[in-house]
Design goal:
Elements lengths: L1 H28 L6 H10 L18 H78 L2 H9 L3 H18 L5 H7 L2 H13 L2
Helix pairs in contact: 3-5, 4-6, 5-7
Length: about 200
């Protein structure tokens, strides 16, 4: 019976010590009291860094309001450091977005320039085709002998283009093509060369 009472007393004593120690740590954290000097070894053994004890001269009392202000200033400094870090990240992301926007603009300009070049080439090809059709109709409207005289003075590739355009117009309009008539009355050597080139470049 006596041993049971002793064990209970020891347990209650340990519980009181734990409650008192926890209360001291909590009140110290709330800046109600200051026991940093006594708790510093405990913090060190636990691998924690306790709040620093302000240096005071002999006979000077600790100003808890000033210490609370110091803790708040320290918290503000930490918050400012976090805000600075976030600002740097935002600035880096902004620079990245601006760089991407510049690259997209450059690509857009390149595409617009390519589109303009393609349009110019298409217009040029259309203009060449119109001129070729005009010349073919002009030759088709004159007597064959006169047309042959003109064709014999032209370059072989230009003659081939004219002959093909004349055939194309005749097929489109359902008329007769004069290309075969021109070839029959043209210089045989030139005709042979034209036919060779037509066969190699259909």
């Amino acid at each position: 019976m006596a041993s049971s009472n002793v064990g209970r007393s020891v347990f209650l004593l340990l519980l009181i010590i734990i409650v008192v120690a926890g209360g001291l740590v909590w009140f110290d954290y709330l800046n109600v009291i200051d026991i940093k000097t006594f708790l510093a070894p405990v913090y060190n053994k636990l691998g924690l860094s306790g709040r620093s004890q302000p240096s005071i001269s002999k006979g000077e009392f600790i100003n808890l309001d000033a210490e609370r202000l110091a803790v708040r200033l320290e918290a503000l400094d930490l918050r400012q450091m976090e805000m600075d870090k976030i600002s740097l990240e935002i600035e880096a992301k902004k620079n990245e977005i601006e760089q991407m926007a510049a690259e997209l603009e450059t690509r857009q300009q390149a595409l617009e320039q390519l589109e303009g070049t393609m349009d110019a080439l298409a217009n040029e090809a259309e203009s060449i085709d119109r001129n070729l059709e005009t010349n073919a109709r002009y030759l088709n409207s004159m007597p064959p002998a006169n047309a042959v005289a003109i064709l014999e003075r032209m370059d072989d590739l230009d003659v081939i283009k004219i002959l093909r355009k004349v055939d194309q117009i005749a097929e489109k309009e359902g008329g007769a093509s004069l290309s075969s008539v021109w070839l029959m009355t043209m210089n045989p050597e030139k005709v042979a060369e034209i036919q060779r080139k037509m066969a190699s470049a259909p």
